[in-house]
Amino acid sequence: MAENNRVSTVLARRLGGELLRMRDAAGLTQPHAAQVLSATAAKIAKMERGWVPFRDPDIVALCKLYDETDEAVVNGLLQLAKLDRERRKARGWWRNIPEMGGLAEYIAMEDAASRIRTWQLSLVPGLLQTADYARALAVSDEFWENPDDIERVVAVRMKRQQRLRGHAPLHVHAVIWEGALRQEIGGPSVMRGQLEHLLELAEMPNVHVQVLPFRAGGHPCIVGPFSLVSFAEAGAVDVVHMDVIGTTVWVESAHESATYARYFDRTARLSLAPHDSADLIASISKGFQA
Description:
Elements: H1 10-26, H2 30-37, H3 41-48, H4 56-65, H5 71-89, H6 103-112, E1 115-120, H7 131-140, H8 147-160, E2 171-177, H9 178-182, H10 188-202, E3 207-212, E4 226-230, E5 239-244, E6 247-251, H11 254-270, H12 274-286
Parallel strand pairs: 1-2, 2-3
Antiparallel strand pairs: 1-4, 4-5, 5-6
Helix pairs in contact: 1-4, 1-5, 2-3, 4-5, 7-8, 10-12
């Protein structure tokens, strides 16, 4: 089996979790599922944990065994499996950059996505950062000490932004807390350049920027930042990505991702409209004097 098939991927874990839920609801065991596929219970366990890619005939056979007759549900699982297989086979530019570590999986998801909704408390979203801002963040992180490594990290951040342009550009809806725009990263000139860049990007038809002002008070997303990754395929489900200290967290259940989507929408409604957000960003930018 190829090396890129010996990993548990976000999409496969989501698919495996759905099949596990259906099996439990049907009152069946892993050996029951294995018998239908002429496989072992160990293989079913690997499938349900997302360690192996799914074949379409296996999905259809399991859905039939679990008495899942809703065509939309079955087709959604098939689309999810197709997307996972494509991600496993992809030889994206990000795979050969050791510095990316766990971020490589997120970049792969971002590359396949049609839309990103991101809520940020303390930083400008990565897809909207300037090179100087990204460099200042890397320098402040004790993990990056070698200047060459820092420059590679910055180059990766800039390359990711190519998804905002060209054929089928990525749609980004960013909601940013006002504090993130006032937090001085890299000095006044870096911040002024970053905020001016943010205003330029916000004029693109596929980039939607809102600011949650201080005066908004409490809000549903006050606990921490996250990103919702959405795909164009019919029936494909959203996944949630969060960076916490020392690790990356993926929220992979349909119920939980729907909860995050509701929280994001409620926070967006509390935020300034795009035009008013642009006015506030411009005002903050003028306050950064070199």
